Amino acid sequence: MKLANRITEINGGGSDGWDVFYRARQMIADGAPITELTIGEHDIGTSLEILGAMHDSARGGHTGYASVPGTDSLRQIVADRIATRTGVETTARNILITAGGQAGLFAAHTAVCNPGDRALFIDPYYATYPSTIRSTQAVPVPVRTTPDAAFQPTADALAAKAQDAVSLLINSPNNPTGAVYSQKTMQAIAQVCHDNDLWLISDEVYDTQIWEGAHLSPRALPGMAARTLVIGSMSKSHAMTGSRIGWICAPEPVIEVLIDLATNTTYGVAGYIQDAALFALGQGPAVEEAVAAPFRRRRDLTMEVLAGQNIVRALPAQGAMYVLLDIRATGMDGEAFANALLDAEQIAVMPGESFGQAAAGHIRVAMTIDDAAYVAALQRLVEFAKTCAD
């Protein structure tokens, strides 16, 4: 008996990029006191008020089948939020509620890519991007960025890969680099999409975590609303990672076919989860700002810890809950450094190579533990790096 190629080839025959994370989790299971700076999991957890709304909805009976596209009220509040933030007219018919941003990424590529189609994405990238594209039987094609250009994709790099492609996946604020794409970058992206008739899939799950600059959704640029699918999520903005609830915002004809896909895959998202999301969004931007505040603070603490030495350098962290650190001065690549740090200091970080070759020689640090513990871990990391460079 043989499994389908679409399953066995999801990771392209190699690692899925999570090896150090899995090893750290096994060490924790074995009783080791590991400091985890790996994944984007808030240290505050989902608020008791949101959990209360979830509890009340479940106890109130919203535990049966929910509307597959999402409840009318949740789709409407998401549409209103997007319209307010972007200035682009958006209705509930532009919204599909999904089981988190990851499900949205898969659904979006399923909607626009046929088997064998070339689907572009920016390198460095969130670890699941190429495997998500392979899951739809499209062909992932990286567009490389560089630290010297602050990991902003250039028009030339995009145009060089765009011929015969059908889609482009972008992520701003960016995981893992922390880059917030400038207006110039977004305009270049839009131009390449127009010139090459590309669908644009814009992963905007970190849009509430902006430390420098401003978030620009490419859907707001001239002519882009008709070719852009935006992925959103409650995970990062409201610390609802485990609730698995997000959305796709897209032209109505795209949403209509995506509803067909949802009917034959997830069959919707649990009603009490949707009601909790509705409650959370109804609390307004102040809640989102409070959830983001610790990461802004820790970004500044990172700069303070790294000041006065040049063995570990931080890339400009303009947004998101991570910092990407350049450790090439140690003479090690990111994977070797991350494994050595885990063994020597019991600190777990993600190798840059988990996010593509453009991030080789870097590590990604998630700013997801309390301030004092974070500063102490970062200081130990710097001291360890110094010993490696000696």
Automatic annotation (TrEMBL):
- Quote the protein name from its UniProt record: Aminotransferase
- GO molecular-function annotation terms? L-aspartate:2-oxoglutarate aminotransferase activity; pyridoxal phosphate binding
- Give the enzyme's main class according to its UniProt record, as a single word: transferase
Any keyword Transcription regulation?
no
UniProtKB keywords: Aminotransferase, Pyridoxal phosphate, Pyruvate, Transferase
**Family assignment from sequence similarity:** Belongs to the class-I pyridoxal-phosphate-dependent aminotransferase family.
The record's Pfam families line, in alphabetical order, gives: Aminotran_1_2
User: What is one GO biological process annotated to this record?
Assistant: amino acid metabolic process
For activity, the cofactor(s) needed are: pyridoxal 5'-phosphate
**What PROSITE patterns does this protein map onto?**
AA_TRANSFER_CLASS_1
Domain called Aminotransferase class I/classII large: residue spans: 34-381
